[in-house]
Amino acid sequence: MSKRRLSALLAAIVVGTAAPVLLPAAGASAASCSSYPNWVAGRSYAAGNIVRYTDGKAYIAEHDNPGYDPVISTWYWEPYACDSGSTNPSGFVVSEAQFNQMFPNRNSFYSYNGLKNALSSYPGFANTGSDTVKKQEAAAFLANVNHETGGLVYVVEQNTANYPHYCDWSQPYGCPAGQSAYYGRGPIQLSWNFNYKAAGDALGIDLLGNPNLVQTDASVAWKTGLWYWNTQSGPGTMTPHNAMVNSAGFGQTIRSINGSLECDGRNPAQVQSRVDAYQRFVQILGTSAGANLYC
């Protein structure tokens, strides 16, 4: 798909220039507050880091900061529930029944359990702020995913003619899996060798050498979607996660995913498709859509 080529190129610019985000390793557990490192005043923290404060409670960094106090600098830190034996302690805000209602015709590959298993990689996702914000973020992610995959139907990019184009040989690591191996896969259709490399490095998985994992392992596929959502700005100015938790609105998530081809009047029908899905999904979750739906 031509939009993938442009979006991936723009994402690559972000991958190459953004400061590294230190996130909990894949499989990290939130079983106990004591399992997190103690907060240290003056130590730099990146968005996604979780610390244990002097009160014994855990906090997750919503923005990079040079060691601000979690109970004072509340714009930079959010309380993070723990000691419940679950990676997403409060429970994912989307139930399996609601998930199935959102995607009645989904491919069985996109399993609910695969999505829940992937949440451990980005514990701030749909677990930050008020209950309304959590539900709005979950709905926003799933609405964009719905648009990208035809309702969670397509696991791989359908235009096979594009497959050979997603290898950038100028990268020092090349394309070890082959010239045509880095086509779009997964819920946000990860493509290009440099994006497989960046996502794999962030998740601790060799996706550059084994890109097929994104189309054979549901948890890995969902993790790549969450990687983009939580760490990449694409053609936008913020990550989709930050757009939702900082009240920038659903429209900014569209801009970060495919704004160069859809926003600012370029393709209003595609934008409307995403907005329609988002409005359906927040209704299913019993919350409001919020402001700034369009880009």
From TrEMBL:
SUPFAM superfamilies: Lysozyme-like (SSF53955)
Record GO terms (molecular function): carbohydrate binding; chitinase activity
One GO-annotated biological process of the protein: defense response to fungus
Gene3D superfamilies associated with the record: 1.10.530.10, Carbohydrate-binding module superfamily 5/12 (2.10.10.20), Endochitinase, domain 2 (3.30.20.10)
Cellular-component GO terms for this entry: extracellular region
InterPro entries attached to this UniProt entry: CBM5/12, Glyco_hydro_19, Glyco_hydro_19_cat, Lysozyme-like_dom_sf
Coiled-coil annotated residue ranges, if any: none
The UniProt record lists the keyword Nucleus: no
Disulfide pairings: C167-C175, C263-C295
Domain Chitin-binding type-3: 36-80
The keyword Hydrolase appears for this protein: no
Signal sequence bounds: 1-30
Stretches that traverse the bilayer: none
Alphabetic keyword roster: Disulfide bond, Plant defense, Signal
Pfam families tied to this protein: Glyco_hydro_19
Entry annotation: catalytic residues: E148 (proton donor)
Annotated PANTHER family: CHITINASE 12, CHITINASE-RELATED
The protein's name: Chitinase
Organism in which the protein naturally occurs: Streptomyces fagopyri
